[in-house]
Amino acid sequence: DTGVSQNPRHKITKRGQNVTFRCDPISEHNRLYWYRQTLGQGPEFLTYFQNEAQLEKSRLLSDRFSAERPKGSFSTLEIQRTEQGDSAMYLCASSARGGRVAGSTDTQYFGPGTRLTVL
Amino acid sequence: AQSVSQHNHHVILSEAASLELGCNYSYGGTVNLFWYVQYPGQHLQLLLKYFSGDPLVKGIKGFEAEFIKSKFSFNLRKPSVQWSDTAEYFCAVLAYGGSQGNLIFGKGTKLSVKP
Description:
Largest sheet of chain A: 7 strands, mixed
Distance between the termini of chain A: 33 Å
Structural class of chain B: mainly beta
Shape of chain A: globular
Mean pLDDT of chain A: 90
Number of helices of chain B: 0
Structural class of chain A: mainly beta
Helix content of chain A: under 10%
Largest interface: A-B, 31 and 27 residues
Radius of gyration of chain B: 14 Å
Strand content of chain A: over 45%
Distance between the termini of chain B: 41 Å
Radius of gyration of chain A: 14 Å
Low-confidence stretches of chain B: none
Oligomer: heterodimer
Number of strands of chain A: 11
Strand content of chain B: over 45%
């Protein structure tokens, strides 16, 4: 399977613990995105990388959240001191090239997500 | 701020009925538009996309969508639905000139097709 992969698929943790998720994008995709999805809502943007550079962070990404993509390949999303409100599905997506010109082929392909439950 | 509205939260249809799911966005500049589908137990999959050119775009499994710029709309259609179309459908917008690269999603429309 050459799609976006995410690990783990499910994570249950106690409030106050730290958790880390991993995303492996489609090979050769230079852009990688993190989204969060809660019940009854569409995915909400958290942050994205172009290669190893983190280019944008949403205001949803509090200082307890940190994301890295050290070698421009896989990425990790860490949540420190988890809260019950962090319970959600965390989605990763990747795209190729990522132009800012209208008509570019910046199509994002999504992974299966990591479902986080904070008790 | 940009936003995407999907008019229907839950649509229930019988097989062979026609489908139209509404999507409106708020952004006055250039946009790329997408419909994603999430089948039960599966991840988000791209159904179709519009970047430029012909405003009527065709996607997989017989779906199509029409971009009407004057109405800021990108409605999804299918002439005859099947039970296997039961899924949640998300409209998404990529706004150029606004936020740099993130998709803005609607809340989704759950489609249930009765056999």
